[in-house]
Amino acid sequence: MLKKIIKSYDYSIISAYFILCLFGLIMIYSASMVMAVHYYETSPDFFYQKQKLNLAISFLVFLFFALFPYKAYKNKKFLIFITLTAIIGLFSVDIFGHVAKNAQRGIDLGTRNIQPSEFVKLSVIVYLSAVYSKKQAYINQLDKGVLPPLLFLIFVCFLIAMQPDNGTALITFLIGLMIIMCSGMRFKTILKIGLLGLLLAAFFAPFVILKSDKIFTEKRLGRISGFLDPFGTGQNEGFQLVNSYLAIGSGGLKGLGLGNSVQKLGYLPEAHTDFIMAVIAEELGVFGVTLVLAGLSFIVLRGLYISTRSRDPFGSMLAIGISGMIGIQSFINLGGMSGIIPITGVTLPFVSYGGSSILVLSIAMGILTNVSMFTNYEEKYKTEKTVPVPRTDRFREVSKDKRPWVNLK
C-alpha cells in the first residue's frame, strides 16, 4: 500500500514548488545585498540567511501536510479552532502588532515577525471548503446554506482591512468568492448574493462618506495618483513604479546578468519583497521572467486540474481555493509592479522574501499535494478493486448443456 501511495504523488507540482522557492532564494540574495549593507548595516547575506532558515522550516511543514490526510480538516472541532484562531490573531495585531510600511500588520516576536493575515487566507479556504461541502443538500438556501459562511468571510476581510492591509483583504475576499462560485450553487443563488452585496454597499456608503478623511488617507490617495501618473509624481508617490519600469526596460531580452542590477542600489526600495520581479527582469531578462511565470502558471493550472478530477467536493474546493490564492496574489503583485493596478505591497508567491508568506504557501502546497495524491490513488487503485473480474472457475460445476455461451462465435 505504501508503494501505491508514493506512486500516487504528483511530483511535477512538487518540483515546480521547490524550483520556484530555490530560485527565489537566489534572487533574494541578489536583490537585498546592497540594502542589507547600506540601510540595515549588516552582512550582505542577512536576508538570504533568514530566508534560507524560513525555507528549511517551510520544507518540513510542506512534507508534513503533504503526508497528513486532508479529509481530517473537515472535523467540526478543527474548524472551530481555526476560525477562532484567525479572529484572535487579527485582534491581537491591534494589541501587540508593530507598524511596517504604514500598516500594523504583524506581531514582532524578536527574531521573527508573524503576520496573522497571511494565515487567515488559508483558514478561510479550509473553512469555506469544509462548510460548503457539508451544505450540498441545502446549499441554495440563503439563510441556512449561504449566509453564515459569507458573513464570516466579510467579517474577517473587514478586520484585515482595518490594519490596514487592503491587498490581503482583497485577496482573501476574492478567494472566498471563488470558492462560493464553485461550490455548486445555482446561478440564481449567486445572483441573489450579488444583489445583497449591492444593498450592503448602498447601506454603508453614507458612513464611508462621513469617514472619508480617515478611509481615504493621504498615503492611500498617493498610491492612486502614483498609479495614474507615475512619471508626473516620479519624485514622490510614483518613485517606486518609475524605477520598476526602468528595471524592466533595462533588462531587455537577456538581462544585465545575475547580480548586476542598478535599480537595487537604493533606487528601488524593498526590492527583495514585492518588487523582486523587477530585479529579475533587469538581471535575467525575459528568461528569468518566463521561468517565474511558467512555474506559477503551472501550479495554478495544475491545481485547477486537480479540482476537476477530485470526486470529493471538499478536496475539489480546497484545490480551487489554493490555486486561486496563488493566482490572485501573483496577479496583484505583478499588476502593481507593472503599473496595471495600484501598488498594494503584496509579495510574489514563493519568490519574494517573507517568513509568514512562504510558510503559509508551503502549508497550502502540502494540502494541495495531498488532495492530488488521494485523487490519483482513488483513480488508479480503488477503481480497480470495484471493477468485477470475471472468474472462469465459478462455472466448473455447471454442465455443458447449461452453458449456452460456449456455442457463441
Could you characterize what this model shows?
This protein is an all-alpha fold and 409 residues long. The chain is 68% helix and 3% strand. The protein has one domain. The chain has 14 helices and 3 strands. The protein has a 3-stranded antiparallel sheet. Strand 1 and strand 2 (103-108) form a beta hairpin. Belongs to the SEDS family. FtsW subfamily. The chain crosses the membrane at residues 12-40, 52-70, 77-96, 116-133, 145-162, 168-186, 193-210, 284-305, 317-341, 353-375. Pfam families: FTSW_RODA_SPOVE (PF01098).
Gist of the model:
This protein is mostly helical. The chain has helices at 2-8, 11-38, 46-67, 76-96, 116-134, 142-161, 166-181, 187-210, 212-215, 218-228, 239-251, 276-309, 313-338, 355-386; strands spanning 97-100, 103-108, 113-114.
Helix content: 55-70%
Helix count equals 14
Number of domains as seen in the coordinates? 1
What ranges have pLDDT less than 50 throughout 5 or more consecutive residues? 385-409
Mean pLDDT: 83
Secondary-structure element string: HHHHEEEHHHHHHHHHH
**How many β-strand runs?**
3
Q: Which class of secondary structure composition applies to the elements?
A: mainly alpha
The percentage of residues in β strands lies in under 5%
Q: How is the biggest beta sheet arranged? A: 3 strands, antiparallel
Shape from CA axes?
globular
From the N-terminal CA to the C-terminal CA, the straight-line distance is: 41 Å
User: Biggest sheet, strands in spatial order?
Assistant: 1-2-3
Cα gyration radius (Å): 25 Å
GO molecular function: lipid-linked peptidoglycan transporter activity; peptidoglycan glycosyltransferase activity
Transmembrane segments: 12-40, 52-70, 77-96, 116-133, 145-162, 168-186, 193-210, 284-305, 317-341, 353-375
Keywords: Cell shape, Glycosyltransferase, Membrane, Peptidoglycan synthesis, Transferase, Transmembrane, Transmembrane helix
Organism: Siminovitchia acidinfaciens
